[in-house]
Amino acid sequence: MAQQRTQLWAAEADIDEDIDLNLAIGTYAQNDYEEASLQQPIADATLQAMQAHLSQQNAFAQIPDAVKAFIVHFHQAVLDNNLAEITIAYESGWNKFTEKFYAKTEWPEAELIAPLVNDDPIFLILYRELYYRHVYSRLQPNIDDRFHSFENSCELFNYLLNSDGPVQLELPEQWLWDIIDEFIYQYQVFCSWRSKVKSKTEDELVMLAEGGPQVWSSYSVLNVLYSLMQKSKINEYIAAQREGKSAEEIAEIVGEYGQRPLYRQLGYFSIVGLLRVHVLLGDFTLALKVMDNIELNQKSPFTRVTACHVTTYYYVGFCYIMLRRYPDAIRTFVTILNFIMRMKQYHTRSYQYDQISKTADRMYALFAMCHALSPSRLDDNIANIAKERFGEQYAKMSKGGEDALASFEELFLYACPKFINANSPPYDDPAAIQSLLAPPTPAEASAVDGSSQLDATHRHLQLFLSDVAAQSQIPTLRSFLKLYTSLGAPKLANFLDADEEEMVQEMMVVKQASRSFSRVPGSSSPGLLDGETITTSDLNFVIAENMVHITESTVGRRYAGWFIKNTERTQKILDDLKTMPLPATRAPGQPQQQPQQQQQQGQRESKKVGWAKTA
Amino acid sequence: MAATWIKPSTRPEPIEDLVSGVDRYNPSNVSILEDYLYHQIRSEEYDLLANLAILKLYQFNPDLYNPDVVINILIKALAASPLPDFNLCISLLDERTHPSTLDEPDPLPSTLPQLKTLQSLLFRCRFPAFWATFQSEEFENLRDNYTVEVAGFENAIRQVAIRAVKATFTHITSERLGSYLNLSGNDLTSYVKGLGWTIDSSNGTITVPPNPDNQIEATVVQEAIKLPQLSKVISHAVKA
């Protein structure tokens, strides 16, 4: 739909007509959206005027009044750039009405409610964004929905990026993150839907042939994300902040777009968005490289939106796994899982809680896999929870051997992101599609079957499993090595019933597995790809000709903390004692005064407190 | 070491701009990166991120696909074992759904399993098996058409073996080392001398120089008590 971009403020002139609605809006001031406070029905004259213009009068009349009022209120808040109101309407209002009226159906179409908001194109774009998000999450989008939601996203980003100068809109951070998140999510489901050639109807094939390559193409998605980053100059902004530049210098560096919080936040979230898209396309190094400027700690801005926080750690951890950097992955997962555990108590009613729980569960699975591949003495808390949840698989994985592979596969498939292929099947080439659907020769038939198996997830799974298989002998070897300080190679080979040369080579693999690239804490460079080689295992060995020398590093007893704590506690008790008032003493020269009182005093004094001797 | 893995010192400036910026998505830049790959092949250099950029362009623009380039990239990645380079390259190889636009049949489907076998052997440190497989008849195509072009391929693989040996051994017999390096006799001696290692000619044992990986000692991780932790206790004692 090509609508003219009316100036936002020019549309205001029309609003004065709906005076009654404006009066009704004044009552919405509570934190939680209360529709019961709507006192006045919409004025008849306005309603008739609207009905006269619409062809779908029935449909419009079927929209509950409360919803209509909500939409108007929402629109007003957006026009006023009233961030607080927008946040309330967005977070609680929308969800409340969804639960109540639209749990199983779609919200009214944008065209239907357009008169309520005076055809304001910007609000309609935002409304459609919410509308399609609802369709994708609660219902099954059909091909029209997919195409239209793409067009709507393009319009939205076009508006944000290609207007003359930055737009004056202000939206809550949560919404901005959700826009980016949803955009990538719709892209991802479209790609996986698109690659299932066999299940398409004739109409769909035609539509895909015509519009296919442009709709949700990888290039356009990447284009949007990179443009948002570049327009807001977010990387320069972060670098300038780190160098401690003054506010004026920063303002100059980032330009007029970067100064507005809307663009800055969008730029920031785009970086995380890029991290996600690159992982989905299988490019793990680029994903981590994109995050160069963002520091993964609790103070970074992305922690303000919990969903963003969790997503970032999940994808970073997964990249480390595919890069064989298991200690880094473990550290990442432990950090975020601790955070989620602590914040669970505050967030149970958030509508994103389900999604966060699911992601947390997947991260436990990934953590279990990493821990089996690279055992370390780190966080026992998380390790215990993971073992509880995935006990059976974890036991199999730690033992190594044949069963382990099946468990690894199971957990990997459960926890991995939904990878996609960057390109669509060749819908625009009818011959090619036909050959994919109905392969003429047996040779090609097997090729088609093979290629449908080689979908992205399978490919990554195979890579991971081959790594795991290479390390499957390690637990057994390690358990033998633990028992000795020096051991002859032939003897060890005897224990394992293996050929000596094979075994020596396997030892090299063990040694290799105990060295890993890892980010050293305290290193100055912020990049996530950096690191040094560190030892990950307690057990260390070396081969001198045919003799294996083994050492094990142990952790000495930690006593300092306990002693310091108790020393401080004793000192505190002593201090308290010294400042406590002494019991009253008898003056020596007053033996006859109030003998009764003295007796009482004596009785009281006789109840002396016994000071126990401390050992 | 990570710093050179991400950004090799041999990477020229234009390539650096290309790899770090948005221009890497521009299909017309693929020839610059391909030329750089051939430069790497001829001069024994290696740049992982630039090669991954080529594969990514192939991912988005299937008509740019050049199987020889892909095979060369994979061969170069073999020599980086045990780093995950080879796997990262495979991750970017999407399936080919388009009918081939090439003049000749695509050699990748037949060479890819072979390369994967070689990689798995290297990762598992099965060096004698690697050399045996590599020299076998089935791999003749790979040898004659591809690896022969890559300068110093065999030496690069030997480096992989040396890295593994350096970490694991303090002394190693020359037969064993020879089987890992696919060298024997005088070739082996001169190679080892070139590395700076010493051979004890009486019994043929080679001494591996000490490095952080093959010096082991039993360490007890002691707790380091720092002064700030004791500050409260000490200051209290001073006050009293």
Automatic annotation (TrEMBL), chain A:
Query: Does the keyword S-adenosyl-L-methionine belong to this entry?
Result: no
Annotated GO CC locations = eukaryotic 43S preinitiation complex; eukaryotic 48S preinitiation complex; eukaryotic translation initiation factor 3 complex
What role is this protein assigned?
Component of the eukaryotic translation initiation factor 3 (eIF-3) complex, which is involved in protein synthesis of a specialized repertoire of mRNAs and, together with other initiation factors, stimulates binding of mRNA and methionyl-tRNAi to the 40S ribosome. The eIF-3 complex specifically targets and initiates translation of a subset of mRNAs involved in cell proliferation.
InterPro entries attached to this UniProt entry: eIF3l
GO MF assignments: translation initiation factor activity
Spell out the subunit comment: Component of the eukaryotic translation initiation factor 3 (eIF-3) complex.
Q: Give the organism's phylogenetic lineage.
A: Eukaryota, Fungi, Dikarya, Basidiomycota, Agaricomycotina
Q: Which GO terms describe its biological process?
A: formation of cytoplasmic translation initiation complex
* Localization of this protein: Cytoplasm
Could you tell me the keywords of this UniProt record? Answer: Cytoplasm, Initiation factor, Protein biosynthesis
Bias kind Low complexity: ranges: 588-603
According to its UniProt record, which protein family does this protein belong to? Belongs to the eIF-3 subunit L family.
Which residues does the annotated region (Disordered) include?
Answer: 581-615
Protein name as it appears in the record: Eukaryotic translation initiation factor 3 subunit L
TrEMBL record, chain B:
| Annotated localization | Cytoplasm
The UniProt keywords, alphabetically, are:
Cytoplasm, Initiation factor, Protein biosynthesis
Keyword Protein biosynthesis tagged: yes
Any one GO CC term of this protein is: eukaryotic translation initiation factor 3 complex
Which Pfam family is an annotated match for this chain, by its short name? Answer: CSN8_PSD8_EIF3K
An example GO biological process term is: regulation of translational initiation
Q: Which InterPro entries match?
A: ARM-type_fold, CSN8_PSD8_EIF3K, eIF3k, PCI_dom, Transl_init_fac_sub12_N_euk, WH-like_DNA-bd_sf, WH_DNA-bd_sf
Identify a single GO molecular function assigned to this protein.
ribosome binding
Q: Does the keyword Cytoplasm apply?
A: yes
Q: Which PROSITE patterns match?
A: PCI
Renumbered to this chain, the signal peptide range is none
> Which SUPFAM superfamilies would you find in this protein's record?
ARM repeat, Winged helix' DNA-binding domain
**Lineage top rank: taxon:** Eukaryota
Under the subunit heading, UniProt states:
Component of the eukaryotic translation initiation factor 3 (eIF-3) complex.
The family note in this entry says: Belongs to the eIF-3 subunit K family.
Task: Supply the PANTHER family for this chain.
Answer: EUKARYOTIC TRANSLATION INITIATION FACTOR 3 SUBUNIT 11 (PTHR13022), EUKARYOTIC TRANSLATION INITIATION FACTOR 3 SUBUNIT K (PTHR13022:SF0)
Its annotated function is as follows: Component of the eukaryotic translation initiation factor 3 (eIF-3) complex, which is involved in protein synthesis of a specialized repertoire of mRNAs and, together with other initiation factors, stimulates binding of mRNA and methionyl-tRNAi to the 40S ribosome. The eIF-3 complex specifically targets and initiates translation of a subset of mRNAs involved in cell proliferation.
* Protein's recorded name: Eukaryotic translation initiation factor 3 subunit K
Lineage of the organism = Eukaryota, Fungi, Dikarya, Basidiomycota, Agaricomycotina
